[in-house]
Amino acid sequence: MKYKFLDKLSQDFSELFDDKEDHNVIIEVDHEQNIKTFTAHSAILRYRSPYFNKELKNTVPSIDDIIKTITIQNIPAQIFEIILKYIYYGIIDTENIDTKIIFKLMIAANEFELWELSMKLESHLIQFESSWLKTHFFLVYRSIFINNKFKNLENFCNDIIVKYPNIIFESTEFTSLHESALMSILKRDDLQMTESEIWDHVIKWGIAQNPILPEKLEEWSDENFTTLKTTLQQCLPLIRYFHIPNSVVMDKIKPYKKILDKQLWDDLKQHLMLPDRSIKSIILPPRLILTQELSARENCAPEKPT
Protein backbone atom coordinates (compact mmCIF):
# COMPACT_ATOMS: atom_id res chain seq x y z
CA MET A 1 0.00 0.00 0.00
CA LYS A 2 1.20 3.47 -0.89
CA TYR A 3 1.02 6.25 1.72
CA LYS A 4 1.34 9.91 0.77
CA PHE A 5 2.46 12.58 3.21
CA LEU A 6 1.95 15.60 0.99
CA ASP A 7 0.83 17.92 3.79
CA LYS A 8 4.03 17.23 5.73
CA LEU A 9 6.09 17.67 2.58
CA SER A 10 4.44 21.04 1.93
CA GLN A 11 5.10 22.07 5.53
CA ASP A 12 8.78 21.12 5.24
CA PHE A 13 9.15 23.11 2.05
CA SER A 14 7.48 26.09 3.68
CA GLU A 15 10.21 26.01 6.31
CA LEU A 16 12.79 25.85 3.53
CA PHE A 17 11.21 28.96 2.03
CA ASP A 18 11.84 30.80 5.30
CA ASP A 19 15.44 29.55 5.51
CA LYS A 20 17.57 32.57 4.62
CA GLU A 21 20.93 30.95 5.42
CA ASP A 22 21.14 28.14 2.89
CA HIS A 23 19.95 29.95 -0.25
CA ASN A 24 21.98 30.20 -3.45
CA VAL A 25 19.74 32.48 -5.55
CA ILE A 26 18.89 36.15 -5.10
CA ILE A 27 15.85 37.43 -7.00
CA GLU A 28 15.52 41.18 -7.43
CA VAL A 29 11.99 42.21 -8.28
CA ASP A 30 11.98 45.65 -9.90
CA HIS A 31 8.55 47.19 -10.38
CA GLU A 32 8.36 50.89 -11.22
CA GLN A 33 11.80 51.41 -9.66
CA ASN A 34 10.71 49.82 -6.38
CA ILE A 35 13.15 46.97 -5.85
CA LYS A 36 12.57 44.14 -3.38
CA THR A 37 14.94 41.23 -2.89
CA PHE A 38 13.98 37.59 -2.33
CA THR A 39 16.18 34.59 -1.63
CA ALA A 40 15.58 31.12 -3.03
CA HIS A 41 17.13 27.73 -3.76
CA SER A 42 18.12 26.89 -7.32
CA ALA A 43 17.06 23.23 -7.10
CA ILE A 44 13.51 24.21 -6.13
CA LEU A 45 13.24 26.89 -8.80
CA ARG A 46 14.65 24.70 -11.57
CA TYR A 47 12.33 21.79 -11.06
CA ARG A 48 9.21 23.80 -10.29
CA SER A 49 9.40 26.43 -13.02
CA PRO A 50 10.66 26.05 -16.62
CA TYR A 51 11.12 29.82 -16.67
CA PHE A 52 13.54 29.79 -13.75
CA ASN A 53 15.26 26.70 -15.10
CA LYS A 54 16.18 28.65 -18.25
CA GLU A 55 17.10 31.78 -16.30
CA LEU A 56 19.44 29.87 -13.98
CA LYS A 57 21.17 28.16 -16.90
CA ASN A 58 21.85 31.56 -18.45
CA THR A 59 22.92 33.29 -15.22
CA VAL A 60 26.53 33.42 -14.06
CA PRO A 61 27.19 33.23 -10.27
CA SER A 62 28.17 36.63 -8.91
CA ILE A 63 29.05 36.20 -5.23
CA ASP A 64 31.88 33.78 -4.38
CA ASP A 65 30.94 31.79 -7.49
CA ILE A 66 27.95 30.42 -5.58
CA ILE A 67 25.10 32.95 -5.54
CA LYS A 68 23.19 33.66 -8.73
CA THR A 69 21.20 36.87 -9.08
CA ILE A 70 18.08 37.09 -11.24
CA THR A 71 16.31 40.37 -11.96
CA ILE A 72 12.58 40.38 -12.73
CA GLN A 73 10.97 43.46 -14.22
CA ASN A 74 7.42 44.82 -14.06
CA ILE A 75 5.89 42.41 -11.55
CA PRO A 76 4.86 43.84 -8.16
CA ALA A 77 6.66 42.33 -5.17
CA GLN A 78 3.30 41.39 -3.61
CA ILE A 79 2.46 39.25 -6.64
CA PHE A 80 5.89 37.67 -6.87
CA GLU A 81 5.94 36.74 -3.19
CA ILE A 82 2.69 34.78 -3.61
CA ILE A 83 4.11 33.09 -6.72
CA LEU A 84 7.34 32.18 -4.92
CA LYS A 85 5.43 30.75 -1.97
CA TYR A 86 3.38 28.65 -4.39
CA ILE A 87 6.60 27.33 -5.94
CA TYR A 88 7.70 26.14 -2.49
CA TYR A 89 4.40 25.17 -0.85
CA GLY A 90 2.39 23.98 -3.84
CA ILE A 91 -0.57 25.79 -2.23
CA ILE A 92 -2.43 28.99 -3.00
CA ASP A 93 -5.43 30.29 -1.05
CA THR A 94 -7.80 32.52 -3.01
CA GLU A 95 -10.20 33.06 -0.12
CA ASN A 96 -8.52 36.16 1.27
CA ILE A 97 -7.08 37.58 -1.95
CA ASP A 98 -8.65 40.44 -3.89
CA THR A 99 -9.92 39.39 -7.31
CA LYS A 100 -7.66 41.86 -9.08
CA ILE A 101 -4.68 40.21 -7.37
CA ILE A 102 -5.91 36.78 -8.49
CA PHE A 103 -6.08 38.06 -12.05
CA LYS A 104 -2.53 39.43 -11.82
CA LEU A 105 -1.40 36.14 -10.31
CA MET A 106 -2.83 34.28 -13.30
CA ILE A 107 -0.89 36.53 -15.68
CA ALA A 108 2.31 36.15 -13.64
CA ALA A 109 1.91 32.37 -13.36
CA ASN A 110 1.71 32.25 -17.14
CA GLU A 111 4.89 34.32 -17.48
CA PHE A 112 6.75 31.99 -15.12
CA GLU A 113 5.40 28.99 -17.07
CA LEU A 114 3.53 27.64 -14.05
CA TRP A 115 0.88 26.13 -16.28
CA GLU A 116 -1.03 24.22 -13.60
CA LEU A 117 -1.45 27.33 -11.46
CA SER A 118 -2.27 29.54 -14.42
CA MET A 119 -5.01 27.21 -15.66
CA LYS A 120 -6.46 26.76 -12.17
CA LEU A 121 -6.69 30.51 -11.60
CA GLU A 122 -8.24 30.99 -15.03
CA SER A 123 -10.93 28.43 -14.16
CA HIS A 124 -11.43 30.04 -10.74
CA LEU A 125 -12.04 33.47 -12.26
CA ILE A 126 -14.56 32.17 -14.77
CA GLN A 127 -16.41 30.03 -12.24
CA PHE A 128 -16.44 32.29 -9.20
CA GLU A 129 -15.52 35.82 -10.33
CA SER A 130 -17.52 36.33 -13.52
CA SER A 131 -19.02 39.59 -12.23
CA TRP A 132 -15.56 41.06 -11.72
CA LEU A 133 -14.50 39.92 -15.19
CA LYS A 134 -17.48 41.69 -16.72
CA THR A 135 -16.93 44.86 -14.70
CA HIS A 136 -13.27 45.01 -15.76
CA PHE A 137 -13.98 43.65 -19.19
CA PHE A 138 -11.58 45.66 -21.34
CA LEU A 139 -8.65 45.14 -18.97
CA VAL A 140 -9.27 41.40 -19.03
CA TYR A 141 -9.79 41.16 -22.77
CA ARG A 142 -6.70 43.14 -23.68
CA SER A 143 -4.52 41.24 -21.21
CA ILE A 144 -5.45 37.76 -22.37
CA PHE A 145 -4.58 38.55 -25.98
CA ILE A 146 -1.23 40.05 -25.02
CA ASN A 147 -0.40 36.72 -23.37
CA ASN A 148 -2.38 34.61 -25.86
CA LYS A 149 -2.58 31.60 -23.55
CA PHE A 150 -5.95 31.89 -21.85
CA LYS A 151 -8.29 30.22 -24.33
CA ASN A 152 -11.07 29.62 -21.81
CA LEU A 153 -11.12 33.29 -20.84
CA GLU A 154 -10.98 34.23 -24.50
CA ASN A 155 -14.09 32.13 -25.15
CA PHE A 156 -15.79 33.58 -22.06
CA CYS A 157 -15.16 37.12 -23.27
CA ASN A 158 -16.07 36.43 -26.88
CA ASP A 159 -19.38 34.91 -25.83
CA ILE A 160 -20.20 38.22 -24.15
CA ILE A 161 -18.94 40.37 -27.02
CA VAL A 162 -20.98 38.64 -29.71
CA LYS A 163 -24.16 39.42 -27.75
CA TYR A 164 -23.16 42.91 -26.61
CA PRO A 165 -20.47 44.14 -29.04
CA ASN A 166 -20.77 47.75 -27.87
CA ILE A 167 -18.82 46.74 -24.78
CA ILE A 168 -15.76 46.66 -27.02
CA PHE A 169 -16.62 48.59 -30.17
CA GLU A 170 -18.01 51.65 -28.39
CA SER A 171 -15.29 51.70 -25.74
CA THR A 172 -12.91 54.66 -25.69
CA GLU A 173 -10.13 52.06 -25.61
CA PHE A 174 -11.32 50.21 -28.71
CA THR A 175 -8.50 51.43 -30.94
CA SER A 176 -5.91 50.08 -28.48
CA LEU A 177 -7.29 46.57 -28.96
CA HIS A 178 -4.71 44.01 -30.06
CA GLU A 179 -5.08 42.89 -33.68
CA SER A 180 -5.48 39.22 -32.70
CA ALA A 181 -8.35 40.19 -30.38
CA LEU A 182 -10.14 42.10 -33.14
CA MET A 183 -9.67 39.19 -35.52
CA SER A 184 -11.06 36.78 -32.96
CA ILE A 185 -14.25 38.84 -32.78
CA LEU A 186 -14.58 39.27 -36.54
CA LYS A 187 -14.36 35.52 -37.07
CA ARG A 188 -17.52 34.90 -35.06
CA ASP A 189 -20.59 34.00 -37.11
CA ASP A 190 -22.84 35.01 -34.22
CA LEU A 191 -21.51 38.56 -33.75
CA GLN A 192 -24.65 40.63 -33.17
CA MET A 193 -23.72 43.59 -35.32
CA THR A 194 -24.52 44.65 -38.85
CA GLU A 195 -21.76 44.29 -41.40
CA SER A 196 -21.96 48.01 -42.06
CA GLU A 197 -21.17 48.77 -38.41
CA ILE A 198 -18.37 46.24 -38.45
CA TRP A 199 -16.83 47.91 -41.50
CA ASP A 200 -16.97 51.32 -39.80
CA HIS A 201 -15.21 50.06 -36.71
CA VAL A 202 -12.54 48.14 -38.61
CA ILE A 203 -11.71 51.28 -40.62
CA LYS A 204 -11.66 53.32 -37.39
CA TRP A 205 -9.27 50.83 -35.77
CA GLY A 206 -6.99 50.73 -38.81
CA ILE A 207 -6.74 54.50 -39.08
CA ALA A 208 -6.01 54.80 -35.35
CA GLN A 209 -2.97 52.55 -35.79
CA ASN A 210 -1.57 55.10 -38.26
CA PRO A 211 -1.91 58.59 -36.74
CA ILE A 212 0.11 60.08 -39.62
CA LEU A 213 -2.80 59.53 -42.04
CA PRO A 214 -4.55 62.77 -43.12
CA GLU A 215 -7.83 63.50 -41.36
CA LYS A 216 -9.66 64.21 -44.62
CA LEU A 217 -10.02 61.22 -46.92
CA GLU A 218 -9.87 63.41 -50.04
CA GLU A 219 -6.30 64.32 -49.07
CA TRP A 220 -5.11 60.70 -49.00
CA SER A 221 -2.41 59.59 -51.42
CA ASP A 222 -2.02 56.10 -52.88
CA GLU A 223 0.66 55.54 -50.27
CA ASN A 224 -1.82 56.38 -47.50
CA PHE A 225 -4.27 53.79 -48.79
CA THR A 226 -1.47 51.23 -49.03
CA THR A 227 -0.56 51.93 -45.41
CA LEU A 228 -4.13 51.27 -44.26
CA LYS A 229 -4.40 48.17 -46.47
CA THR A 230 -1.24 46.75 -44.92
CA THR A 231 -2.49 47.45 -41.39
CA LEU A 232 -5.83 45.73 -42.07
CA GLN A 233 -4.57 42.86 -44.21
CA GLN A 234 -5.59 40.26 -41.59
CA CYS A 235 -8.95 41.86 -40.78
CA LEU A 236 -10.35 42.77 -44.21
CA PRO A 237 -10.86 39.14 -45.35
CA LEU A 238 -13.11 38.57 -42.30
CA ILE A 239 -15.77 41.08 -43.37
CA ARG A 240 -18.88 39.66 -45.05
CA TYR A 241 -18.95 42.11 -47.99
CA PHE A 242 -21.62 40.37 -50.00
CA HIS A 243 -24.16 40.75 -47.20
CA ILE A 244 -23.81 44.54 -47.05
CA PRO A 245 -26.65 46.60 -48.58
CA ASN A 246 -25.86 48.15 -51.96
CA SER A 247 -26.23 51.68 -50.69
CA VAL A 248 -23.70 51.02 -47.94
CA VAL A 249 -21.24 49.56 -50.40
CA MET A 250 -21.40 52.74 -52.44
CA ASP A 251 -21.43 55.16 -49.50
CA LYS A 252 -18.91 53.53 -47.16
CA ILE A 253 -16.82 50.95 -48.99
CA LYS A 254 -16.30 52.63 -52.35
CA PRO A 255 -14.32 55.56 -50.80
CA TYR A 256 -11.85 52.93 -49.49
CA LYS A 257 -11.87 50.65 -52.54
CA LYS A 258 -8.09 51.02 -52.89
CA ILE A 259 -7.54 49.00 -49.73
CA LEU A 260 -9.46 46.05 -51.22
CA ASP A 261 -8.05 43.49 -53.61
CA LYS A 262 -8.96 44.42 -57.17
CA GLN A 263 -10.82 41.15 -57.72
CA LEU A 264 -12.93 41.71 -54.63
CA TRP A 265 -13.93 45.22 -55.66
CA ASP A 266 -14.74 44.06 -59.19
CA ASP A 267 -16.91 41.28 -57.78
CA LEU A 268 -18.65 43.69 -55.43
CA LYS A 269 -19.52 46.01 -58.30
CA GLN A 270 -20.80 43.09 -60.33
CA HIS A 271 -22.82 41.84 -57.40
CA LEU A 272 -24.51 45.23 -57.16
CA MET A 273 -25.68 45.08 -60.76
CA LEU A 274 -26.01 41.33 -61.36
CA PRO A 275 -26.47 39.62 -57.98
CA ASP A 276 -27.30 36.25 -59.55
CA ARG A 277 -24.12 35.99 -61.58
CA SER A 278 -21.23 33.90 -60.22
CA ILE A 279 -18.10 35.62 -58.92
CA LYS A 280 -14.51 34.61 -58.14
CA SER A 281 -14.26 35.99 -54.61
CA ILE A 282 -15.08 33.84 -51.61
CA ILE A 283 -18.53 34.61 -50.21
CA LEU A 284 -18.58 34.19 -46.45
CA PRO A 285 -21.91 33.16 -44.91
CA PRO A 286 -24.09 35.85 -43.32
CA ARG A 287 -23.82 36.34 -39.58
CA LEU A 288 -26.54 34.79 -37.47
CA ILE A 289 -28.20 37.99 -36.31
CA LEU A 290 -30.89 37.57 -33.67
CA THR A 291 -33.25 40.51 -33.82
CA GLN A 292 -33.91 40.34 -30.09
CA GLU A 293 -30.20 40.37 -29.25
CA LEU A 294 -29.49 43.17 -31.69
CA SER A 295 -32.18 45.29 -30.07
CA ALA A 296 -31.13 44.42 -26.52
CA ARG A 297 -27.50 45.34 -27.04
CA GLU A 298 -28.44 48.93 -27.69
CA ASN A 299 -29.36 49.21 -24.02
CA CYS A 300 -26.36 47.29 -22.73
CA ALA A 301 -23.48 49.40 -21.44
CA PRO A 302 -20.36 48.06 -19.76
CA GLU A 303 -20.34 48.39 -16.01
CA LYS A 304 -17.97 50.90 -14.51
CA PRO A 305 -15.09 49.44 -12.49
CA THR A 306 -15.35 49.93 -8.77
Task: Describe the 3D structure.
This is BTB domain-containing protein. The chain is built from 16 helices and three strands. It has helices at 6-18, 42-48, 50-57, 77-89, 99-111, 115-128, 130-135, 137-147, 151-163, 166-169, 179-186, 195-208, 222-231, 246-253, 262-273, 291-296; strands at residues 25-31, 34-40, 68-73. Strands 2-1-3 form a three-stranded mixed beta sheet. Residues 294-306 have low confidence and may be disordered.
Please tell me the CATH architecture of the largest domain by its name: 2-Layer Sandwich
> What do we call the CATH homologous superfamily of the largest domain?
Potassium Channel Kv1.1, Chain A
Mean of all residue-level pLDDT scores: 89
Q: Looking at the structure, what is the overall shape?
A: elongated
Q: State the CATH class of the largest domain.
A: Alpha Beta
Helix content: 40-55%
Poorly predicted regions are 294-306
Percentage of residues in strands: 5-15%
State the domain count: 2
Q: Count of DSSP helices? A: 16
Order of strands side by side in the largest beta sheet?
2-1-3
Gyration radius (Cα, Å) is 26 Å
Q: Count the strands?
A: 3
Distance between the termini: 53 Å
Largest sheet: 3 strands, mixed
Order of helices and strands: HEEHHEHHHHHHHHHHHHH
Helix/strand structural class: mainly alpha
Topology:
Elements: H1 6-18, E1 25-31, E2 34-40, H2 42-48, H3 50-57, E3 68-73, H4 77-89, H5 99-111, H6 115-128, H7 130-135, H8 137-147, H9 151-163, H10 166-169, H11 179-186, H12 195-208, H13 222-231, H14 246-253, H15 262-273, H16 291-296
